[in-house]
Structure formats: C-alpha cells, structure tokens
Amino acid sequence: MSEPLKGVQPTEFKGFSCESHPVNPRLQCITLSAEALGQFEKNSLKWDLQAIEYKPFLRFVVANALDEACLGTLAPLLNSIMADRETAAFMFEYEGQPDGDISDFHVKLSTAISHLIGVPNFDAMYGKYYARFTVKNKDDSDSYLRQAHRRMELHNDGTYVKERTDFVLMMKMKEQNMEGGDSLILHVDDWQDLDQFYQHPLAKQDIQWGSPPSKQVDYKVYHPVFFEEDKNGKPHMLFIDQFCEPQNMQQGLYLYQMGESLESEKNCSNIRVPVGSMLVLQNHCWLHGRDKFVANPGLERELLRQRGQFSSN
Ligand SMILES: [Fe+2]
C-alpha cells in the first residue's frame, strides 16, 4: 500500500486532526475537535432536523456551517481523500458532547458530511435522503441487512438501482449489548484474486440485478460486475451476492466463485465504528460488509446510512 495523502499537510487543518487508521492505513481517521463541534452546533442551531428534511438546500447550508467551523479546511480534505483511489475512505469522529437531542445531532452531522462530498440519493427503503434502521437479536426480514449472528458478505451498494452510488456513509447511532459486529472493508486493489476475475471473459458481460420486496425497488438493472474504469484505467466494481440474478450456469459459477474468493480474502480489515462515528467509503473501489455478532437477547444497534453521488461528477 502506498503512503496516503502526500500533498496534504496536517498544519493546514483547522478544527480537526487526520491520521491513518492503525488497522488499514488507506482509511483516514478525521477527528473534529470539541471546539469546532461547538462552533458547528452554534452555526447550525437555527435549522432543526424537520427543516433540513423539508428543504433540501438547508442540507448544503448545514454542510457549509461545518466547513466554516473548520475555517474552510475540511471540505477540500474530504474531497481529496475521496478522489484519491489510494485512500478513498475516511472515518469521521468528534470530541466533546453535543447539546440537545443526540440522535438529531447525529443526523445533522452525517448530513453535513455527505453534502460536503456530494448529494445523497433518495433511500426508497426509508422514504428520505437517509435511512435509519435497527439491528436486533431476532429479525424476520427478507435480506441480511438487519440480521445479527451472521456475517454480511463483502459487497458494494447500489448494485440493483438505476442511480449512481459513488459513496456510502454508515453511522453508528446507538449500540447496546453488542459484541462483534465490526465493519469489514476491502479495497478492490488489495483483493489478491482481482486479476483472475477482472481478466475473465464474464468480467464485462451484463448481469441481471434485482432485490427483494423490502427494498422497494420494482425493476431489474443490467450491468457487468466491473462496470467501468476510473481515470487511471483501474476497475470500478458493483457486486453483491444476494442480488445478482445469473441467467446461466457460466454466470452462476463465476459469481459464486467471486463470492467465495472475497470471503476468504486475508486483506479484508475489521474496523470498529464507535457510537457517533461514521465510516465513508468510495463505493466502487471499496467493498464493505459486517462481521457477525454474539447472540444476546438485549442486543440492539441503530445505524444510519446515506448513499449518493459525488458533486464532482
Ligand atoms: Fe451495504
């Protein structure tokens, strides 16, 4: 792995720090200072969550308030991290304690971050630009999203929708009686079998993708797993094992072997996301998943996600 962020000097940061994650140095850990947090709260006090949900332009105003609390140094850093394939991921945390409703604050903060790098897509499962969902000990839903006790396999988001999904933001809102359940992340360039699948005759062949009823998406989409190359000719990926719908034996075996290879990849990193922190990934060069939890009747975890497009597109 190459050294990330050669051109950015820490002395240029105001109101936050940035360093490489100890588990995976590609991942950049940004910590907002208590002072900048207080300034952001003050700057954005007059816009409550309802107003932000009703008026999309306020989401950009809130994002700007966060950048102003960092004297304009946060937005350039976030965008350079996401534009650099060598990194293309960050964890955002804060110091100090926000005043007022903590859940509302977390939605606001995640909104600020997503709108500093782009614009979120409408989340059909939740009916808003973001989604909040709870993982409990038991779940009867029709996909693995909310199920504990099992590993959610490495995947990209946005495989079965028409909208482009350049980034995925995952925030931990609440957590009780949780053991395990770390985020799993793998950079496409760290996947040791990449070439075997990327050079395969099916790498560029359209595959059918669909989703179960809970996703509220009533159409199919068609695209290859390696659906495009970035500006340097490196592959962008869209893969998820649950929602590809192979139409012949050749496709079925190719996709099965891809899933097996990804699940056995040793370069996959376990990342703990603390409550109030968010993990933001460039969705086409990073795969993500979730490790299993230890069963506990009192187990409960609430997550927030936003998925969207970069404004630089
Ligand atoms: Fe996902």
Major sheet, described briefly? 8 strands, mixed
Tell me, rounded to a whole number, the average pLDDT.
Answer: 92
Bound molecules: fe (ii) ion
Structural class: alpha+beta
Number of strands: 16
Shape: globular
Helix content: 10-25%
Strand fraction equals: 25-35%
Order of helices and strands: EEHHHHEHEEEEEHEEEEHEEEE
Query: Runs with pLDDT <50, length 5+?
Result: none
Please give the alpha-carbon distance between the first and last residues. 27 Å
Number of helices: 7
Computed CA radius of gyration, to the nearest angstrom: 19 Å
Please provide a brief summary of the model.
With 313 residues, this protein is an alpha+beta fold.
Q: What topology does this entry show?
A:
Blueprint: E1 16-20, E2 28-32, H1 34-44, H2 49-54, H3 56-69, H4 74-83, E3 89-94, H5 102-117, E4 118-120, E5 131-136, E6 152-155, E7 167-176, E8 183-187, H6 194-198, E9 207-209, E10 221-223, E11 226-229, E12 235-237, H7 249-263, E13 269-271, E14 278-282, E15 286-290, E16 300-310
Parallel strand pairs: 2-3
Antiparallel strand pairs: 1-2, 3-14, 4-16, 5-16, 6-15, 7-14, 7-16, 8-13, 8-15, 9-10, 11-12
Helix pairs in contact: 1-3, 3-5
This protein binds fe (ii) ion.
